[in-house]
Amino acid sequence: MRNSVGATRRTVLIGAIAAAVGTSLGCELEGSDDPDLTQPPFQPLSERPPQSSAKSSTEPSTQPAAQPSSGKYGSGELAPWQTKRRVISDPSEIRRVVRTNGVVMFGDSLAIQDTPALIRQLTATTGDALATHNWAGHPSGPATDALEIWARTYGLPHRILMAVGTNDIFDPPAVAGNVERVMSIVGRRRTVVWVTVAVERRRTVEPDRANSAWVNRQLRAAESKHPNLKLARWAEFLAADPSRPRRYLRDGAHTTPAGQKIRNGLIVQALAAAKND
Hints:
The protein is about 40% helix and about 10% strand. By secondary structure, the chain is α/β, with parallel strands linked by helices. It has an 8-stranded mixed beta sheet with strand order 2-1-3-5-4-6-7-8, sandwiched between helices.
């Protein structure tokens, strides 16, 4: 699948995702400042940091690790995400996916890492095409903004995949309102599949667990309220065995190869079940 960034619609190569350290769960990559409909104007171009300040995704971070007491909720502060790596489908691909009733996806750095394998698994299982708006560092608020702009610009297919929430551990109370916004945008005839969240970085294990659980409680409450909201239960899978986070999370947030296969499998299973809803 071809994805692009900026008006030039260059192909973005999916590279290795650097380990999440400090207060950021994403990685950074130099990108274009050219405006494009596939990149909602979350921040005016004149206010974005210079691109030269962004580090390559393969460059090790020198940021200190977050401390358990840092940030309002103990997990630290969300680092600026505007210049971080993104993999966004070009308009022709988005329109094709909407026209053929495939799946549109809004995700973060975990999604950037896992989506190439997800596309292969989804295609093999359901035959569906996938259009992506994956942006490292995205919490649910900006992802919902992107969904709203896509809905207005391109329309939406029957299924929407929200693979965000990991970065909401820095501000868990925001999730409920963003979920309601998503459900209002998609309406009652489309199905939203939302992946539950599991974060437990080495330096902030307890607050990360508590904040992940807080995010997931809001997702489950919304699921009970909205019949067309379905959860892909990644966090629940990990919680079923205390050894699983160590085996399936390479840095407390991003998946190992084995974890990627399982998480993608849960997503594809939920999307397949929703195909005929």
